[in-house]
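Write out the bound-state structure for flavin-adenine dinucleotide.
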Amino acid sequence: MDPEQARIEEDLRGIVAGEVLCDDVGRGLYATDGSLFEQRPLAVVRPRSTDDVAATVGWAAERGISLHARGAGTSLCGGGLGGGIVIDCSRFMRRVVGVDGDRVRVQPGIVAGRLDAMLGRRRRMLGPDPANAAVTTIGGMIGRDASGSRFLRHGSIRGRIESAEVVLADGSVIELRPTEPVARPAAVPGSGISAASPDRLGELAAGVAAILDRRHDVIARYQPGGRATHGGYRLHDLQVDGRVDLPRLFCGAEGTLGIVTAATLATVPQDPASAVGLLLFDSLEAAAEAALRILPLGPSACDLFDRRHLALAREARPSFDLLIPPVAEAGLLIEFAAAEPADCNARLEQALALMRRGRRGCIDVRRADDAHDAAFFWELSRNVVSTIHGVRAEMRPVPFLEDIVVPPPALPDFLGRLQTVLRQEDATAMIFSHAGHGELHVRPHANPRAAGERARLESLAAAVYEHVAAVGGSIGAELGLGWSRTSAFARLFPDLAAVFAEVKRVFDPAGLLNPGRVVPGEDPLPLFRRPLSGRAVAEGQGVVDGDEPLAEREPEIVPLTTWSRERLVVETDACNGCGGCRSLAPTTRMCPRYRENPAEEATPRAKADVMAALLSGELDPKAASGDAVRAVADTCFNCHRCRSDCAAGVDIPALVMELKAAHYAANSTRLAPWLISRIDAVAALAGRVSPLANWALANPQARWVIEKVTGIARGRKLPPVSGTTFLRWAARRGLTRPSRRSGPRVLYFLDTYARRHDPLLGQAFVSVLERNGIGVFIDPRQQASGMPLVSEGDLDGARRLARANLRVLSEAVRLGYRIVCTEPAAVTCITHHYPLLLDDEEAARVAAATCDAATYLWELHREGRLRLDFRPVPARILYHGGCHERIDPGMMPAENLLRLVPGLSLDTTDHGCSGMAGTFGLSREHYRASLRMGLGLVNGMRSAGIEAGATACSACRLQMEQGTTKPAIHPVKILARAYGLLEGPPPSGLDNLFSAVSGRLTAS
Ligand SMILES: Cc1cc2nc3c(=O)[nH]c(=O)nc-3n(C[C@H](O)[C@H](O)[C@H](O)COP(=O)(O)OP(=O)(O)OC[C@H]3O[C@@H](n4cnc5c(N)ncnc54)[C@H](O)[C@@H]3O)c2cc1C
Ligand code: SF4
Ligand code: SF4
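---
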């Protein structure tokens, strides 16, 4: 950090109680959002209170430094980026301040979906429903005047805001509410309103009222009442009963008039009933015309999808294949909401009948029969939008010109014009529209990091916008003007843009609040994201904010895994910054670490951002081995949830592996992490003196010493080590030689837990396989998978184990064995990490032949080869699918198998991540965080009626037993018990025989 930067950090730390980031890595995390732009801020402040925001703004105002409010950073037009101070309200200012009847007072950082979940418990909701409600903040929604598919019913957040506390450009704090102008401000518009003014609120209202009066004609011409929405300040309806509605003016102001630090919002009752249908058409225009005919029936939503969108949906989810025939050129999702089901059903039927009767290009109509169907249809609007952003190809649909609104009757005509322009410009685009109110998201295919692409996009946008203006439309309606559209808006509507500039001057005469958004700034537009090669500077890319020109740097990020640099670049580039991984929704699990510590650096996207900064040369390559990069990488504990939950499927765990490896290779590691990453060797040693080791594990004083030496938390319940090794048992049974059985054969890959702690698990698995006629081979040369080494970044150590295991496993695969493991994390290590560790074709072959025990047994069942002569096991158990088990979406084989056992009653409520992640939850450093993450699961175990837990993951089992006396059991053991294969008392339920902590089968 240079001295100037250090001084800024010191100054800001002195005046705010929140966090200040001034280092290169921290600032880099805030240099991008969901848009194509990139600009590193001077500093980032994460305020804890309004006072922190006010102090920061005051400090910056004195120095003429710009300020950029930020929520989740999902803006698609660069709304919250900037070269000054970014104020991230999402970290600490995320509270519901109070609920009063049908009003709620919130801080700006609260996530909309969370607020709605809280309101839902009172059968109320906010209403406006952006597709990314699971991550977007209320501050961002206000900044953007966000709305969603149900705009027709609920409008945008502008219709909900009643008052707002804001920090103005000089650092003063004011509560905005609809206000009568006190007097025409003495100051002429342009000089701002003085903070010392006794009735500042009234004077601000007067400043705005004066503009509304003076520029009434322009406003009425460009913002006719009744039209859905448009970009920039919305002025046409601001004055009601002589009062100026200042809170509403702030909706859509993109942080250019002040920073919202609290808001009071009106809530509405939840829609009690809804009915959903999907209509398919042979052309886009036919779908748009159908939307117009349906509108008089009062739909709550009416979304239109083009052929490419439908094709992507079919690719993303095979079940859409059955729903949407490839001949469909367009689709229309319609929803009717009402107080009575009969009412919305009747209107949906009318709409469907209208289509069936008139046809006019309608090739199919589908009705959602139940809530499950409806949710499935809605995925077309909700999830496919994020999937679009993750298309892996050089040319892919990008956000830039996508935010267009036209009067709905003009939509069919405009769609025709749009397609003509696309043809003329030789461009391809994806089209998605909230057709009911004429909002269009047009995403052209482009490679924004390539030379010349920006100019091409700008020229395409200009050509399209001419037609927007010609049909009476506007731009920046839903997603904002931001950096993408502010200049274009000013060119299209210069008179209105001049009015916006006057409004801006009332609040921010010095132009410090988010300059360049809504009102064009003096500085040139920032650059698109930098090319990731780092070696060549694309045309139009170059120096930012006085940074060293990229061409002069030669970043040398040489992948330490087997990735070629190109593949590393492609994977990093696949993260589009959509922010989906900030989700706190219970419907996804990513990212457990972010959920526990909701800071930007803990997001999966932060890892891609850091890698991108290294690959582009924005970060000095030497930083790769530095502690700041390692600190970001360490916020990932390798659970792999993001690999399946991120719509773009970015392989964040592999990027993290790369980052940790760079650090590990250059730094000596501390003893405790070193020992924990070698937990297998430690357990092997302990096994040799198992009576002593197990005494120590149970003795508080000895645990204190163990904690000091190894870093393993003394509060963590640990499984005893086993003195009798499983391999000895296997050898006695002749299993350590290749199986002589004909037919299907399995090489059982043991990994640490079954080998060192719970030989009974291995015995149970072998007996279940043998019961089903499967030949078993347990090659004694196999070693631990090496997952803890991968998680630590010790790739040399992990590679040694991988190589040794691969020799054994590939030989078995050649002989026709499947590799099956009772530990899901070991499966992930073999299938995902080994191919990245070893440049060896065998690694891919072995990966393809490897699976976990439940997957293998479920496959047997599907082939009709699993014996079903189970005895009843009368018990109620909580089943927990560990993160590594759930990498393949929709696959829950262990749960399915347990459902085959008579008498067993399963509670499959998803309580989220257990917080263990292999060795993470063992360490003293992370013990408490691990408990916080796993609290939901532990509480689930504590529930009355639950007798035991079941999960295949050994680490999750430890957590499940941590706060309870109930046992957590591997599903394979339950199957063995149901087959009557385990010794012990008659299977009259689940007794403590199965405790993972006791680790052995003993008669009670
Ligand atoms: C996959 C995806 C789907 C989307 N779907 C929709 C959609 O359906 N509807 C929709 O409207 N938008 C949508 N968006 C665009 C965008 O995410 C939303 O507009 C969102 O509301 C922005 O919220 P945020 O918390 O991410 O804010 P940010 O992106 O951080 O900020 C957005 C704007 O608000 C300003 N701002 C943030 N906090 C404050 C504050 N405290 N005070 C004043 N100004 C502030 C910022 O300066 C910026 O100009 C989508 C984006 C993505 C990536
Ligand atoms: S990691 Fe995935 S979900 Fe997160 S920002 Fe990147 S693309 Fe979006
Ligand atoms: S692997 Fe898990 S911890 Fe790591 S970034 Fe992904 S979801 Fe978060």
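---
The first helix runs from residue 3 to 15.
Residues 33-34, 68-76, 79-80, 89, 108, 130-132, 136-137, 139-141, 143-144, 146-148, 254-255, 259-260, 385-386, 478-479, 514, 517, 578-579 surround flavin-adenine dinucleotide (ligand 1) (CB under 6 Å).
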